[in-house]
């Protein structure tokens, strides 16, 4: 008898969702996490009393029990909740010529934009209209109902036929890019730059490279649900998923580094850990990136040569520079939590160092920092190329962190005098702690230029989840990838029973 029915490699959100759902469905699940902390890119850490996020900080619907966010749907099924605090605006976007508050409700968003460009605000309405209509159509089919095999068809036909009819008018944009809608509705350069930035923050690509449903979901949830932040930081979400996993009998093994996926007679047999430990299972789900899965976890001969070459040639978004700061909070009573700074209009927003994201979650949750202090996380894209831990490493860290400091100075001008704790992370840090090839943010698959892989692989018993599978990058997307995979691995009637409970 095998040690488990399913082994999951990695405890990112995609892996935890897949593992927890399969445990709920009655499978014997073991999740193997290389590090001593679960969560992948969403894990948190503590230094000198400051509790930091390492990755995502923008969330929707955590406090809304009826949210369409796939992550929230899973937590609802598992019987878990995450306490969260709602806030508005979502953040402030600081451009060289103006600062725009990004309000959650679309009408307030448009009113704020009209203070800068009245014509652009009118064009924004025209841009948002088809996306919000697409959101309404998609919202009729909960993600928790979906799967990646033919058994999805009878579910859609018997339970969601009216929703399918509602989707028909939107077929032209479902597989299209946001850029197509942008080009047909917006001429104002200010708004075009704004929409490119919104897409970049979501997918790592501008409007031309971002799929329309992803932005439709973002705008719809922002407008119809609630934007909120989890009390305790992003790790509170991870803790809830781990509780859900163990509540239904699943196991999480920390410090369990997977060296190889075991392949016997052409199919999965389990995983090989360090120190010659082996965990046997007929199904393995990799939450590692496609590059890490196909280069480090499998031997080259395990995959068809052409398939392997095609997958490994998938373009990737750059890595990151990170700045984690503990700062004195005196005199910052009016500080807001999220900011995005674009330094120059003469440089592409996707260029490393030009667009910087800033999160100060202790504005909402005082427990994240010692009394009288704030915790701050700033990050920007940075190429992995050229980085090495040589004699110039520390000087380069200092140099490459300066765009982040200049960005924070737009929000807190005297930031350098307030610092009590400074941690600078590079693409090497990102790659090491998250075990991501080149420290990448994820695939750069633009609509019409490639197809997002499903959970399937050519190896029987091997599946994948996470941000290098359909539907892509971002917390809702990776949670959805875990749902799609877990549901695919159980008979449709089991999922239908879950739907009854969900509804």
TrEMBL record:
InterPro entries: CrtISO-like, FAD/NAD-bd_sf. SUPFAM superfamilies: FAD/NAD(P)-binding domain (SSF51905). The keyword Transmembrane helix applies. Pfam families: NAD_binding_8. Keywords: Membrane, Transmembrane, Transmembrane helix. One of its GO terms (biological process) is carotenoid metabolic process. The chain crosses the membrane at residues 6-25. This is All-trans-retinol 13,14-reductase. It comes from Roseofilum reptotaenium AO1-A.
């Amino acid at each position: 008898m095998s040690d488990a029915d399913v082994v999951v490699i990695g405890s990112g959100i995609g892996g935890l969702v897949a593992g927890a759902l399969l445990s709920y469905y009655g499978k014997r699940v073991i999740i193997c996490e290389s590090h001593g902390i679960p969560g992948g890119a969403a894990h948190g850490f503590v230094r000198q009393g400051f509790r930091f996020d390492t990755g995502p900080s923008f969330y929707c619907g955590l406090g809304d029990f009826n949210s369409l966010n796939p992550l929230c749907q899973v937590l609802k099924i598992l019987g878990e909740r995450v306490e969260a605090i709602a806030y508005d605006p979502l953040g402030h976007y600081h451009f060289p010529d103006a600062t725009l508050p990004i309000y959650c409700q679309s009408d307030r968003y448009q009113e704020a934009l009209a203070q800068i460009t009245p014509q652009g605000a009118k064009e924004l309405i025209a841009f948002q209209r088809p996306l919000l209509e697409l959101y309404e159509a998609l919202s009729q089919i909960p993600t928790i109902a979906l799967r990646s095999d033919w058994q999805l068809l009878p579910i859609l036909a018997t339970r969601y036929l009216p929703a399918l009819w509602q989707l028909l008018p939107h077929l032209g944009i479902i597989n299209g890019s946001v850029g197509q809608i942008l080009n047909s509705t917006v001429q104002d350069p200010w708004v075009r730059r704004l929409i490119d930035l919104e897409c970049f923050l979501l997918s790592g690509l501008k409007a031309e490279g971002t799929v329309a449903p992803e932005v439709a979901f973002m705008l719809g949830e922002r407008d119809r649900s609630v934007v909120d932040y989890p009390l305790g930081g992003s790790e509170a979400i991870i803790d809830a998923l781990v509780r859900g996993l163990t509540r239904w009998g699943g196991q999480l093994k920390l410090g369990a580094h997977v060296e190889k996926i075991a392949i016997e007679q052409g199919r999965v047999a389990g995983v090989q850990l360090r120190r010659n430990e082996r965990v046997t299972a007929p199904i393995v789900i990799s939450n590692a990136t496609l590059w890490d899965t196909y280069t480090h976890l499998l031997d080259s001969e395990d995959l068809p040569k052409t398939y392997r070459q095609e997958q490994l040639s998938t373009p990737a978004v750059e890595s990151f520079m990170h700045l984690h700061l503990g700062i004195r909070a005196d005199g910052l009573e009016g500080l807001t939590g999220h900011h995005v700074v674009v330094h120059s209009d003469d440089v592409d927003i996707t260029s490393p160092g030009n667009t910087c994201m800033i999160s100060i979650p202790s504005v909402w949750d005082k427990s994240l920092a010692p009394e009288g202090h704030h915790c701050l996380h700033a990050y920007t894209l940075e190429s992995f190329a050229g980085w090495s831990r040589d004699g110039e490493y520390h000087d380069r860290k200092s140099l490459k962190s300066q765009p982040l400091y200049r960005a924070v100075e737009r929000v807190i001008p005297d930031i350098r005098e307030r610092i009590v704790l400074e941690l600078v992370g590079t693409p090497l840090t990102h790659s090491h702690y998250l075990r991501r090839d080149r420290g990448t943010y994820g695939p750069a698959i633009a609509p019409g230029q490639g197809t997002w892989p499903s959970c399937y692989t050519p190896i029987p018993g091997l599946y994948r989840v996470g941000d290098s599978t359909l539907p892509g990058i971002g917390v809702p997307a990776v949670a959805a990838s875990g749902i799609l995979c877990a549901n695919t691995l159980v008979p449709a009637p089991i999922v239908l029973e879950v739907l009854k409970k969900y509804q």
